[in-house]
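Person: Show me a sequence?

Helper:
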Amino acid sequence: MSRKQLIGLIVMMLIVGAFATVIWKLNGIFGLLQNQTQEIVLALIMAIIAGFLIEFIYKKLSPQSKILKTTQTQCADNSGTVAKLILPNNNNIIVKDAEKIMGREDFLGVIPSDELYFIGRDHFKITKKDCCYLCCFFLQDLKTKNGTTLNGEELHGSKKYRLNDGDEIVVAKSLHIKYNKVGQL
């Protein structure tokens, strides 16, 4: 048992003692009632107090799962929130899924073929997640040789960068994409 848990247990024992004292004092007040009624009322009060104490102790002593602390869940809303990527030729790529990996093949015909080779097969990923009760999109470079920038800032490592309406994504210093968040299609 850890020190924090031991202190919590001692505090709970002190609280139980205080409630027992209060109930003992209430016993004098309940003296006016019949014995059976008095016992029922006292048993009910003790059951309520015991229920709260058990719940409190359970929450304090039960370990919290690491996955609940570190995992960011996918977007829970079914509102149909999508991301729209506007390409230089004014074509759009709509991202509906929780995750979309994009690369060289997604941009065929958008930029010249000789520039396509600078874009990786799997170059970047867009992920839809919950953030502050809203559905947000995040951009992540997939550790590519020629990189990805967001509003002029180079994306590093496996860090995910939140996308905001109107952001400019530059893929491999050759493809300029504008990001727009759309509520529903």
Remarks:
- Residues 3-63 form one domain.
